[in-house]
Amino acid sequence: MDIDASTAENDTAAPKLEWRVMLPVFLSVSLYAASAAAALPILPFYLKEMGGTPLVFGIVIATEALTQFVAGPVVGQLSDRVGRKKILLATQVTAFTSFLMLALANAVFPALLARVLFGFTGGTFTAAAAYAADHSSPANRRQAIGILNAAVGLGGIAGAGLSGYLSGISLTVPIYAAMGFSATSFVVTAALIKGHVASHGFDETVKSRAASDKASIRSIISSPLIRVLVIVLLCYFFAYGMYGSQIANYLQATFTSEGNSFGPRELGYIMAADGAINILVQLFLLQWLGRYFTERRLILLICAIVAVGYITVAFAMTLPVLVFALLCVSVGDALARPTFISALSVHAPRERQGIVLGTAQSLLAATETVSPVIAGFLIAQALYGVWTGAIIAFVALAAAVAWTRLPLTDPEAEGQANE
């Protein structure tokens, strides 16, 4: 069997990627991302007004990530059993409640509780990604995941941009905007997404076996290739967690432009620009690179791009240099998320997409329970060089593992060629 015939046969066996199916979840994810992006830019400054230090902010972010670590596999497995729509609705109600708690908080501890609750909504993207996997084939899986990442980018533009503007009124106003986005996301999900059990298309025996299987991280990463991908993923996102959790505090302490220090408005605009870059990467760059790059080469390219960005941030003294650095990191991260998620999804059984992606989300959250605290300590002690060096070291480790352990060609491509 030739490659084209094999590919066509594989595509026929799986649902086609259709916009009428993907558009509702695209809108739902966009609105959820807008709510998250509206609240996040003001959070370090909101906590600072309550007496919080960079270390305190790191602890808050780490505690939120710990919640995601616990909830990720559970939410993913529930989406396999009860359907994606019910999980999306539940996480959106949780997000709205957490924003309300955050808006009413007048001390660090209530704000911490609000973010812990928000951590449970990390399953939103897991359920949405599993929905995308349900309606895509291995051949277009990266495109489907990329569409959701574009949705995150679009939401980031709207939420962060609005937050940057509204923060000039009050740091609380963007949180109420986040509540509005969250409520709208609930309505869109309830009205437009059709409820279904994720493992549709399989007979009842398969569904029953999938539901009763005992999920564990060990069973998920039993494949040597997936083990390597997970190690690379953890190293990469540990570095990104150290960067993303403290970049606002770092720039506030070290960077000034035209006599103005870095604040919530600037962070909001940076996040909006990051969202725009995300969309452009998903719509144009990712699909083009996917034609010419294997997973291994693409991961190495991503590591190289973000490494340039991280190094440049450390030496940025002018606005153009800082913009270049942030552009590199944004482009690299926009490429990284769909690449890693797609790679894991392609090698997972179709009836287990939710639990596999949920476990991956949980592993990412595990890195985020540690990296913000370490980064917060380093920034609070003004150890900026150590902070930058640690970030670059983890990216280099991710690249080294990918270079030495990932195959030169994609295994699924080899399988098609041999048929």
Automatic annotation (TrEMBL):
<feature type="transmembrane region" description="Helical">
    <location>
        <begin position="87"/>
        <end position="106"/>
    </location>
</feature>
<feature type="transmembrane region" description="Helical">
    <location>
        <begin position="21"/>
        <end position="43"/>
    </location>
</feature>
<feature type="transmembrane region" description="Helical">
    <location>
        <begin position="224"/>
        <end position="243"/>
    </location>
</feature>
<feature type="transmembrane region" description="Helical">
    <location>
        <begin position="112"/>
        <end position="133"/>
    </location>
</feature>
<feature type="transmembrane region" description="Helical">
    <location>
        <begin position="384"/>
        <end position="403"/>
    </location>
</feature>
<dbReference type="GO" id="GO:0016020">
    <property type="term" value="C:membrane"/>
</dbReference>
<dbReference type="InterPro" id="IPR001958">
    <property type="entry name" value="Tet-R_TetA/multi-R_MdtG-like"/>
</dbReference>
<dbReference type="InterPro" id="IPR011701">
    <property type="entry name" value="MFS"/>
</dbReference>
<dbReference type="InterPro" id="IPR036259">
    <property type="entry name" value="MFS_trans_sf"/>
</dbReference>
<dbReference type="InterPro" id="IPR020846">
    <property type="entry name" value="MFS_dom"/>
</dbReference>
<keyword id="KW-0472">Membrane</keyword>
<feature type="transmembrane region" description="Helical">
    <location>
        <begin position="145"/>
        <end position="167"/>
    </location>
</feature>
<protein>
    <submittedName>
        <fullName>MFS transporter</fullName>
    </submittedName>
</protein>
<comment type="similarity">
    <text>Belongs to the major facilitator superfamily. TCR/Tet family.</text>
</comment>
<keyword id="KW-0812">Transmembrane</keyword>
<keyword id="KW-1133">Transmembrane helix</keyword>
<feature type="transmembrane region" description="Helical">
    <location>
        <begin position="298"/>
        <end position="317"/>
    </location>
</feature>
<feature type="transmembrane region" description="Helical">
    <location>
        <begin position="173"/>
        <end position="193"/>
    </location>
</feature>
<dbReference type="InterPro" id="IPR005829">
    <property type="entry name" value="Sugar_transporter_CS"/>
</dbReference>
<dbReference type="Pfam" id="PF07690">
    <property type="entry name" value="MFS_1"/>
</dbReference>
<comment type="function">
    <text>Resistance to tetracycline by an active tetracycline efflux. This is an energy-dependent process that decreases the accumulation of the antibiotic in whole cells. This protein functions as a metal-tetracycline/H(+) antiporter.</text>
</comment>
<feature type="domain" description="Major facilitator superfamily (MFS) profile">
    <location>
        <begin position="21"/>
        <end position="414"/>
    </location>
</feature>
<feature type="transmembrane region" description="Helical">
    <location>
        <begin position="55"/>
        <end position="75"/>
    </location>
</feature>
<feature type="transmembrane region" description="Helical">
    <location>
        <begin position="267"/>
        <end position="286"/>
    </location>
</feature>
<dbReference type="GO" id="GO:0022857">
    <property type="term" value="F:transmembrane transporter activity"/>
</dbReference>
